[in-house]
Each structure stands twice: as structure tokens, then as C-alpha cells.
UniProtKB/TrEMBL annotation:
InterPro entries attached to this UniProt entry: AI-2E-like
Family, as annotated: Belongs to the autoinducer-2 exporter (AI-2E) (TC 2.A.86) family.
Location(s) in or outside the cell: Cell membrane
One Gene Ontology cellular component: plasma membrane
Coiled-coil stretches: none
Top-level taxon of the source organism: Bacteria
Record's bilayer topology term: Multi-pass membrane protein
Protein's UniProt name: UPF0118 membrane protein
Keywords noted in UniProt: Cell membrane, Membrane, Transmembrane, Transmembrane helix, Transport
Transmembrane recorded as keyword: yes
Keyword Transport: yes
């Protein structure tokens, strides 16, 4: 009878746990982002708590307000600026449709071997512009629907970001108690190795934050400097766009290549060459140097494990996979190491 009662209690506990996960499922991504943000900035939280005489709630509120000012408000400002640039791009397309393309630049015809063909192609595109727009027009509605769907996703992302900034306050305020609770759970599950695996997860997340976010910030700053020197309008906005694009593989060229093409279109050939060289060797080149250095710094995991986790996690889980992927691979790699070492030990004599 006692065994039946114990089994019933276990079933009820599992059902209760499943119901809790089901209720929390819509907020898991925002919770993860809040936890990652709180963990990455925890040294600031400790410093501010000491400065305020140990008042954790006040320190958490102040630091959360700082994140709202640094993250949420710039994103709103970026959205309004992007809307202005989209209107400018729409006006440009309308002008091209009515007036056609401008005359081909003189340097285009001077290119050896292919210059005349490029000028002829330019003129044919100009002459066929109306027909081209007529053929493309049936697809504009589909493009509009796609943009509308992407806008809905962006709106969902902004809502998720807002929720994560709300959750980060509670992670700041209750961080030590949550860490102690997680440690006790791990000790019940895996025993004395609990603290090691908790440190492993924390270290992996910290390295990815330093490598991915740090490299993206450096690329965004360098891109903004290049845009300002080249005289590209909206340099600050494009710098922020470069920062966000730097979080995905091969993202920065999506920002500086169109800017370079715009300079060529305006006849600023010298600045176009400068921005092309700056983008290739500085903006995109820093990713090959800074990211591996920051990710490999302060850890004993193979760099390839972390990099595979970053890219694989991004494909499997989306943007949050930047942190989930390397954490899963790091834990799996360490578990396999522990298992191989214990399997190689001789059995204990009884």
C-alpha cells in the first residue's frame, strides 16, 4: 500500500511539473534572455549593491532602468529611423520607375574588355525598366505580405525583449537565492560534481557573451566610424544595424556592401573604394581575430566545441541558440570526458 501511495505522489508531482512547464512555455525564451543578461552583467550588480549599502532591490531597479535606457529606447529610435529610410527607398524606386535610371557613369565604359557590354546592359535595363516593373508588379503583393509577416515577428521580438527586461529585475534581486536553489537541485541529481557543472555552464555562457556580443559591438562601432568618414547618411543607424547583423554569420556585409553601392551610385568613387576596403579588412576582418580570442579566453574547452555550438545553436534554436548550443555541447563534452575517465578506472575490489 505504501508503494502505491508513493507512486501516486510521484505521478502527481510529474503532472504538476508538466503543467508548470506548459504554463511557462510562452515565457521561456524571455526568461532565458533575462537570465543571460543578468548573468553577463552580474559584476555590475554586485558593484552597485556594495555602493548602495547592500540594498539589492534598489540596485536591481536602477540597473534594470539603465538597461531599458540603453536597449529598449534605442530600438524604438532605430525603428522610427528605419521607417524614414524605407520611405526614402520607396521614393527612390518610384523616381526610377518614372524617370528611369541615370546615365551610366563614365568609368563604367572604361573598364577593359567588358566596359562596352556593361554600358549596353545599363542602357537596356533603363529602356526596359517600365516593362520590368510591369512584370514585377504581380509579385509586389507577395513581397508586402512577407514584409508584414516579418514586421509581426519584429513586434513579437520587441515584446519578448520587454518581458526579458522585466524578468532581469527579479534575476538581479533574487540571483544568489536562485543560484543556491539550482545548486541544491543539481546536487540531488549528480552529487558532488554539481558545482563543477554549474561553473561550466556559467563559464560557457560568459565566454559566448564576451565573444559574440563583444565582437558585434566592436564591428558596429567600426562600421559607424567607416560610415561617418565616407559620408554615408544615417551612419549611427547603420552602425546599430551592423551590430545586430554581426550577431549572425556573415551579417556585416549586408550593411556595408549596400552603403558602398550607394556611394558608387552617387559618384563618390574614392569613398566607395575606402568603404569597401574598410568593410572587408576592418569590419568583417575583426570577426576572424576578436571572436576566437574572446571565446577561447579563460576556459579549457576546445574552441571548436564552442564555435560549433554557437553556429549549430543558431540554426537549431534561433537567436537564443547562440547561448543554448555551446552550453549543451560543453555539458555533453564534459559528461563524455567524465564517463571515459571513470570507464578506464579498474573496478574497486570488495
Amino acid at each position: 500500500m505504501a508503494n502505491n501511495d508513493r507512486l501516486l505522489v510521484q505521478i502527481l508531482l510529474l503532472a504538476l511539473l508538466g503543467a508548470g512547464v506548459w504554463v511557462m512555455a510562452p515565457f521561456i525564451s524571455a526568461l532565458l534572455w533575462g537570465a543571460i543578461l543578468a548573468f553577463a552583467s552580474w559584476p555590475l550588480m554586485r558593484l552597485l549593491t556594495r555602493a548602495l549599502g547592500g540594498r539589492e532591490t534598489l540596485a536591481a531597479a536602477l540597473l534594470t532602468t539603465v538597461w531599458i535606457l540603453l536597449v529598449a529606447l534605442p530600438l524604438v529610435w532605430l525603428g522610427f529611423n528605419l521607417a524614414d529610410h524605407i520611405r526614402d527607398a520607396t521614393a527612390f524606386v518610384r523616381d526610377v520607375q518614372v524617370d528611369g535610371l541615370p546615365d551610366a557613369p563614365a568609368w563604367l565604359g572604361g573598364i577593359p574588355l567588358v566596359g562596352e557590354r556593361l554600358v549596353a546592359w545599363w542602357d537596356s535595363v533603363d529602356q526596359q525598366g517600365a516593362a520590368l516593373m510591369a512584370s514585377v508588379k504581380p509579385y509586389l503583393g507577395q513581397v508586402g505580405n512577407w514584409l508584414l509577416a516579418r514586421s509581426a515577428q519584429i513586434g513579437g521580438g520587441v515584446l519578448e525583449l520587454t518581458l526579458s527586461l522585466v524578468f532581469v529585475f527579479f534575476f538581479y534581486r533574487d540571483g544568489p537565492r536562485l543560484a543556491a536553489f539550482v545548486l541544491r537541485l543539481l546536487q540531488r541529481l549528480i552529487g558532488e560534481r554539481a558545482e563543477y557543472y554549474l561553473d561550466l555552464v556559467a563559464g560557457t555562457v560568459q565566454r559566448v557573451v564576451n565573444g559574440v556580443i563583444g565582437t558585434a559591438a566592436a564591428q558596429g562601432l567600426l562600421a559607424m566610424i567607416g560610415f561617418l568618414i565616407a559620408g554615408v547618411p544615417g551612419a549611427i543607424v547603420l552602425g546599430l544595424v551592423t551590430f545586430m547583423l554581426s550577431l549572425i554569420p556573415m551579417g556585416p556585409p549586408l550593411a556595408w556592401i549596400p552603403a558602398t553601392a550607394w556611394l558608387v551610385w552617387q559618384g563618390e568613387y574614392g569613398m566607395a573604394v575606402f568603404l569597401g576596403v574598410w568593410g572587408t579588412f576592418v569590419i568583417s576582418g575583426v570577426d576572424n581575430v576578436l571572436k576566437p580570442y574572446l571565446i577561447s579566453r579563460g576556459g579549457n574547452l576546445p574552441l571548436v566545441i564552442v564555435l560549433l555550438g554557437v553556429f549549430g545553436g543558431l540554426i537549431a534554436f534561433g537567436f537564443i541558440g547562440l547561448f543554448i548550443g555551446p552550453t549543451l555541447l560543453a555539458v555533453a563534452y564534459s559528461l563524455l570526458l567524465d564517463w571515459s575517465r571513470s570507464a578506464g578506472q579498474p573496478p574497486v575490489a570488495r
